[in-house]
Every structure is written in C-alpha cells, then in structure tokens.
C-alpha cells in the first residue's frame, strides 16, 4: 500500500495524517448475515465489545458466527486520524488497527466467552503483524467499555499467558486500552461482512492452537 513503512512503527499524533471532519463514504444500514442494523443506537440490554485480531475480514466472521452476537461491524480504532480511509490506515500513518465492533446479548453469550474466542482466533504475541500480514494495522488490541470489561480482559490475558508460556510461546503484545477517547470509525461498505459477500475471499485469521481457560474472568456487574 502507498506510503507503507519498511519497519512497522506507530506514528506520533504530530506525524499522523489529519483526516477529515466527515467520512468519504457511507456505511450500509443492515448486516448481510444477521439482518440487524450495523450502526447504533442499539437495543437496550445489549453490550458492545471492540476487538482487533488481524485482518478484519476473517475476524468479523468469527464473531458473527457466535450465538448471542446481534451485529458486527468492521472498522478502524486506536489511532489519531479522523474518518480514515482504508488506504490511509494501510499506510501506517493513521495509527489505527483493523478492528471489529461486536454487539452482543450478555444473556446468551458472556464477555468472557467472547474473550476466549478472541484469544484463540489469532496469535496475540506477534506485535505489529498477524501471520503474513505485517503492519501496525494488524496489531492485536482490545478496547474496553467498562471497568468490568477491563477487569475481565486483564484476568483472561494473565490466564492465557500462563498456558501460552507453557506451550513455548512468547509474551502477549495485545494493546489493552479503554474505548473512551478511541473512536471506532466504521470501514467502507465493501469491508462489511466481506467474507459473506466473497466466500472464497482472503482470511488471514489463525490461532496458536493453545486453548484459553474459560471462566477466569470475574463476573460482570
């Protein structure tokens, strides 16, 4: 992609592209698989989780296939540029990572169960890459929406690190930060539910093969 750096490195706020006050594109209204709206506000009782685990095409599919997930949305998060475009994110000059917003019913699927899916669906020890996909936009990240989510993430990370270390893997490099102040910018329409529209499309998602202990996260509330 244009302006791609040889060695992945996050830009400073001063180095980042400035972006624009309004998006250059519109986002489809409805999820092609689940049939629910992509953008909020969402029905009362649902919760929001934000995950980044490599190319968002395959990552989004992992979550929409999960019972209790109401809708999913591919986007960009964790950077500085307002209303970024895909090519800008791929340049490494926005600071964003490819992320998936997951809207779920906690009565059907818990946040701890979503964390288990997150950890097991990629290799969280790779830094600015995921497999053959190299760049800051592929870094592993979780952006939390409550103190309960933050506590659950910390507990699951620590538990998963133990089993990863026992299996010979390195340290988890997942970026874990509050979602507040880190806007989730929806991606272009063709990225939404990409692997539903293109069943034979590229999917770079792959885990370590190490199971994450479930039930290690404290109960929400």
Quickly give the structural class: alpha+beta
Strand order of the largest sheet: 7-6-1-3-2-8
State the order of secondary-structure elements, H for helix, E for strand: EHEHEHEEEHEEH
Q: How many DSSP E strands?
A: 8
Rg, alpha carbons: 16 Å
Uncertain ranges: 1-5, 216-221
- The pLDDT mean sits at 93
CA-to-CA gap between the ends? 44 Å
Oligomer: single chain
Helical content stands at 10-25%
Shape: globular
Number of helices: 5
Largest sheet: 6 strands, mixed
β-sheet strand percentage: 15-25%
Could you name the key traits of this structure?
single chain; 221 residues; alpha+beta; 6-stranded mixed β-sheet; two-stranded antiparallel ribbon; 5 helices; 8 strands; 22% helix; globular; disordered N terminus; disordered C terminus
Topology:
Blueprint: E1 47-52, H1 56-64, E2 69-77, H2 86-90, E3 97-104, H3 111-120, E4 129-130, E5 133-134, E6 141-144, H4 147-166, E7 175-178, E8 185-186, H5 194-197
Parallel strand pairs: 6-7
Antiparallel strand pairs: 1-3, 1-6, 2-3, 2-8, 4-5
Could you provide a short overview of the structure?
With 221 residues, the protein is of the alpha+beta class. It has helices at 56-64, 86-90, 111-120, 147-166, 194-197, and strands spanning 47-52, 69-77, 97-104, 129-130, 133-134, 141-144, 175-178, 185-186.
